[in-house]
Amino acid sequence: MDSLVIDGGIPLNGEIRVSGAKNAALPILCAGILTAGSLQVRNVPHLRDVTTMLTLLTQMGMEVSLDEHLGVCLSAAALHNRVAPYELVKTMRASILVLGPLLARFGEARVSLPGGCAIGLRPVDQHIKGLEAMGATISIDSGYIHARAERLRGQHIVFDLVTVTGTENLMMAAALADGLTLLDNAAREPEVVDLAECLNAMGARITGQGTGSIRIEGVANLGGASHRVMPDRIETGTFLAAAAATGGEILLKDARVDLLEAVVDKLREAGAFIESGPDWIRLRAQGRPRSVNARTAPYPAFPTDMQAQFMALNSVALGTAVMTETVFENRFMHVQELIRLGAEIEVEGNTAIIRGAGGLSGATVMATDLRASAGLVIAGLVAAGTTVVDRVYHLDRGYECIEEKLSKLGARIRRQRN
Ligand code: EPZ
After folding, report:
1. Cβ atoms within 10 A of the Cβ of 10, count?
2. Catalytic positions
3. Which DSSP category does 19 fall into?
4. Percentage of residues of the chain with pLDDT beyond 90
5. SS3 per-residue string spanning 178-222
6. Taking 90 as the threshold, does the pLDDT of residue 357 lie above it?
7. Distances in Å between the alpha carbon of 217 and those of 148, 154, 155, 159, 197?
8. Other CB atoms closer than 10 Å to residue 220's CB: what's the count?
9. Could you tell me which of 79, 165, 257, 278 has the fewest CB atoms within 10 Å of its CB?
10. How far is CA 155 from CA 131, 158, 164, 170, 182, in A?
């Protein structure tokens, strides 16, 4: 398992390009199942999760080709296998996103239950409830979801809670259903909007994306299309938080400030100076950051996927911060690792109190999940001395060439193959 070795204390300075959004690319690749035409997806990030998704689709019979610009061309004309096996699903929960498209296009699917993960139980009951409401017959045995439907029927579905992939799964299923589907209490994340825009380019009739009420008029068939994946707002926020924590000035290209207003507000509250244009964001830190409180919640509120990164920032900030995690039940595993670096953090239930320490000092720490790893990297960039972050395969799932990008910004970071 690879590690990242970081010599901290160097302010980040320079310019990098933000990659395509992992959490938009994954459902959009699954949308390729919905058509016998070919779907060209551009600006796909080169990530472990994307590779896993392409492996899953290929073993189902999807024809996949990569163009010279890392664009992906998909054709489901010869798709024959409607099974998503446990071996792949257990490594990437987003595999559940093939369920809705398989059911809508072929009337059957066998998808392994994802199982829990480090940050929580992460059930998929809302996905199943919605598909059953649309007329699917679903049983669960031997750890697999078996789903069948002659043809899904449009339905008015109210989610019990906001679920991103639940909204995406049902939106894709409804695109080919018979009649009108209304999704209420739907997720408003930009990645849901990006998927809807790709589906509409394929001939779907979706409106209301980005609001809590999405309207989908089912059509008989969807065609091929070409779609460019939106920039990754969490990668953007991660680099901005790293620059604010270490000091310095960075420019992010192919970044959209409208995707992460809540994060930018918090960074300004922490004392950073931020300006932006249509496709760029510049941050200039002005000395040590000030502590900022944050409470995670569904978009447009402060994202849970930025919680660990801000905990690292608050660990070196001036003051005391209170951070509350309301989306996942176990997303504080980075706390113990940050404490190994000298952070002063107390946890009470789903709330953490972070006292800005005088400074952090390097140590060996262990990544436990994707965004926790990003928080540990940020802490290592600030800590005096050398920090070794173990199990960086977590990072590779969601960040494209993170050490190359950070090195380009002046960080002293290298990958150690163990
Ligand atoms: C998506 O996960 C993202 N993943 C996650 O990003 C992100 O943290 C999460 O949304 C929240 O924003 C992808 O888009 C691939 P949810 P998802 O369904 O859809 C509960 C990353 O770091 N729930 O919105 O799985 C669930 O347990 C990853 O890139 C149910 O109870 O999250 C959680 O507490 C991590 N029943 C809450 O809802 C369900 O049927 C929100 O989960 C579905 C969800």
Report:
1. 18
2. 117
3. P
4. 93
5. ECEEEEECCCCCHHHHHHHHHHHHCCCEEECECECEEEEECCCCE
6. no
7. 21, 8, 10, 18, 14
8. 8
9. 278
10. 9, 10, 19, 10, 6
* Token representation of residue 167: 């909204």
Mutate to test the pocket of ligand 1, among 19, 129, 163, 334 (most ligand atoms within 8 A of CB): 163
Question: Of 61, 111, 56, which is closest to residue 88 (Cα–Cα)?
Answer: 56
Cα separation of the two ends of the chain: 6
How much is the pTM? 0.97
Q: Is 407 helix (H, G, I), strand (E, B) or coil?
A: helix
Instruction: Pull the structure tokens for residue 205.
Output: 């009739």
Q: How far apart are CA 117 and CA 414, in angstroms?
A: 28
User: Other C-beta atoms within 10 Å of 133: how many?
Assistant: 16
CA-nearest residue, atom 25 of ligand 1: 165
pLDDT tens per residue, range 387-415: 999 999 999 999 998 999 999 999 999 99
Is 43's C-beta closer than 6 angstroms to any atom of ligand 1?
Answer: no
Pocket test for ligand 1, best of 30, 122, 333 (most atoms within 8 A of CB): 122
Q: Ligand 1 pocket, 29 CB below 6 A?
A: no
SS3 annotation, 36-102: CCEEEEECCCCCHHHHHHHHHHHHCCCEEEECCCCCEEEECCCCCCCEECHHHHCCCHHHHHHHHHH
Per DSSP bridges, beta strands 320-324 and 280-284 are unpaired
Q: Using CA of residue 208, residue 211, residue 214, residue 215, what is the dihedral sign? A: negative
The Cα–Cα gap between 376 and 365 comes to 8
Q: For residue 72, what pLDDT is reported? A: 97
